[in-house]
Known about the structure:
By secondary structure, the protein is mostly helical. It folds into two domains: 3-74, no CATH class; 94-310, MetI-like fold (Orthogonal Bundle), CATH 1.10.3720. It is 76% helix and 0% strand. It has helices at 3-29, 35-40, 46-56, 62-74, 88-123, 128-141, 145-156, 180-210, 213-220, 225-263, 268-277, 281-309, 311-317. It is globular, with a radius of gyration of 24 Å. The termini are close together. The mean pLDDT is 84.
Amino acid sequence: MGIAKFVLKRVLLGVLTLVVVSIVVFALTQALGDPVEAILGREAQPASVAAMREELGLNRAVITQYSDWLSGLVTGDPGISYTNGVPVLEVLGDRIWNSLFLMLVSALVSIPISIAIGTLTAARRDTAFDSTSSATSLVLASMPEFVTGLLLIVLLATNVWQVFPAVVRIRPGEAPWVDVGALVLPVLTLTLGVVPYVSRVMRASMIEVLESDYIEMARLKGLPERTVVWRHALPNAIGPTLQVIAINIAYLAGGVIVVENIFNYPGIGLALRDAVTDVNVPVVQFIAMLIAAIYVVVNLLADVGTILVTPRLRTRLQ
């Protein structure tokens, strides 16, 4: 099976996954409550309730509601916000880009740091640096994002050192990079959530590569240890780590929801919180599907990247 067939198979599997997720999301959002009651209140007249249900299309069969929603999602029309009657994409337009920007910056910061730490700890195996890094990563990995975020606020924004703002103050329509200082703590929170996992896997992969025969041959040729580690071992150790990197990048899509609520960052996290509170079903459904789509796309790219950097897998698919 060639690489093209493999990619096609993975794409079809991803589409099937999203279809299954859409069914689950649609079913679960029906349990949020009655959006008509949330809009009109419990004391609304039956005639008003009936009219509102007809206007929102909630009087139709569930299967019809699902098929219409799914077809709209595929064609780029995820529906109308129940709270203000504005299309969902207009409600979430700036917020989506804000969240994607936060994810991108966090990934660009956390992944190189993770790879560097994993490489250095493997090269200095069983030293004090290795033991300290392993213990620190275990502590960070055991801490949820909201705990890490709150600790950073206490340390760097309030009681100890007032270095960065505790909340993000980006007005509607402003780009997130207009206030770089306010992004430090959200990015640092997400980075500390990713680095422990990726660095530990990178360390294990590097140790395995450093003990291989071709690395021993490079050392016997008299190459400096720095050249052996960074030029010969590192490229071969990244392949097995790509899957974990993909999982953690996909994790950022869910992690931003918690982090945005902590730092008042105007992204999809705050929008999801408000949508759940207001029983704004179309917004909740779209955000859930957006996060699922990010998971699928990132894992697909990781699968392809793993094949491209691993000669043994490329040969097997040819």
